[in-house]
């Protein structure tokens, strides 16, 4: 009872604090994940190279979510992803009135991070930044912009399915009545697995903010394909949010 009273008396973070936490968390995700893809993998700096260090990139994205979840999750819920925000709202875990602010903060945080990466690249080796941008700046894509040459429908399927599974894990591990210990770790490892599966297909989005942040510096090709990585992660997240609320969120008293 004392714990319940203490929780009830705990101050609720302000809207400004929540939005700042979302911006910082998305900044960290893009800086860590896209930064690793750019700096650690020749695939994104040398067009035509097949030497992408998939495991390092996958771990970078997963680790940024783990760190961000524990650092900023207690303030905002730790979404760092417009698709997650929409899926969580569809599941009834976030008021819809808060969704626009979350999404704007996430997109801004991501673009600031990719801008920092560009600034670093300006002081890199001769031709590094031009090469990185010519190779797409670690953007998502299909066809000639896919590491494995996969087509648009492969990207659509993988984004819907993997984003939905990501939301199922998030909603399941953060349930108020049956929370999972170390939920942030489980969520981060899930994102790592998602990247291991789908980097060869489309460089892995499951996060429109991450896709926007990279594409704004990736050139015409990535920008022309960006709509897929905005629309279909959201589709997958909404499906999962509604399905979880309908099928898995019920309780029963005996």
Automatic annotation (TrEMBL):
Cited InterPro entries: Aquaporin-like, Aquaporin_transptr, MIP, MIP_CS
Entry annotated with the keyword RNA-binding: no
Membrane topology per record: Multi-pass membrane protein
Subcellular location: Cell membrane
Keyword Transport: yes
Transmembrane portions of the chain: 23-40, 52-73, 103-123, 150-170, 182-201, 226-244
Molecular function (Gene Ontology), one example: water channel activity
Gene Ontology annotations for the cellular component aspect, listed alphabetically: plasma membrane
Alphabetized Pfam families for the sequence: MIP
PANTHER family: AQUAPORIN TRANSPORTER, MIP17260P
Family: Belongs to the MIP/aquaporin (TC 1.A.8) family.
Keywords per UniProt: Cell membrane, Membrane, Transmembrane, Transmembrane helix, Transport
The protein's name in its UniProt record: Aquaporin Z
SUPFAM superfamilies, per database record: Aquaporin-like
């Amino acid at each position: 009872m004392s714990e319940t009273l203490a929780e009830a008396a705990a101050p609720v973070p302000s809207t400004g604090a929540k939005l700042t936490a979302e911006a910082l968390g998305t900044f960290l995700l893009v800086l860590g994940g896209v930064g690793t893809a750019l700096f650690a993998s020749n695939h994104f700096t040398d067009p035509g190279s097949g030497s992408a260090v998939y495991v390092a990139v996958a771990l970078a994205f997963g680790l940024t979510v783990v760190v961000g979840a524990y650092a900023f999750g207690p303030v905002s819920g730790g979404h760092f992803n417009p698709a997650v925000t929409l899926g969580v709202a569809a599941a009834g875990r976030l008021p819809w009135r808060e969704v626009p602010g979350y999404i704007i903060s996430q997109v801004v945080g991501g673009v600031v991070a990719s801008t920092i990466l560009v600034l670093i690249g300006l002081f890199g080796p001769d031709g590094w930044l031009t090469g990185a941008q010519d190779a797409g700046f670690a953007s998502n894509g299909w066809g000639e912009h896919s590491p494995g040459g996969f087509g648009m429908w492969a990207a659509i399927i993988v984004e819907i399915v993997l984003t939905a599974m990501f939301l199922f894990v998030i909603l399941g591990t953060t349930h108020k009545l049956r929370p999972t210990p170390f939920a942030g770790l489980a969520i981060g490892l899930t994102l790592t697995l998602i990247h291991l599966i789908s980097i060869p297909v489309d460089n892995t989005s499951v996060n429109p903010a991450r896709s926007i942040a990279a594409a704004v510096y990736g050139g015409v090709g990535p920008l022309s394909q960006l709509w897929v990585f905005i629309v279909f992660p959201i589709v997958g997240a909404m499906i999962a949010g509604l399905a979880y609320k309908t099928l898995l969120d019920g309780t029963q008293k005996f």
